[in-house]
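Handout, section B. The chain below has 117 residues.
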Amino acid sequence: EVMEQLSRKADPEQTLVDVDADQIDAFYFFAPDEVLDQKMKMAADTRADQIAVFEVSHPDEARKVIESSLAAMQQQNANYFPEEAAKLEKACILNEGAVFAVVVGEQADAVCSAGLE
């Protein structure tokens, strides 16, 4: 399963916690009913670290939505948590068909270069 693979790579110490599934659309500013299936893990503290895997109805538009959401989060963090803003700037977005994965954290580069295998 994609989430488990990403989770092992991106969060080796398994410090991220599962988030209620229906939060992804709101979190990434997706239109209602756009996200068909979703799974998300986040840091329980002020860290921006997160792993999200979701399937969307309009994959051609999804990357733009994700990128603008990450940019907004980056701006929110810029003044108070510059390290977190830097992580958001380097977020990894993977995509295969209608499935997208977003990884924010120290391992984002490594995850992106490994891809969704």
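Note. The beta strands are 17-19, 35-42, 50-56, 92-96, 99-104. Compare this with the example in section A.
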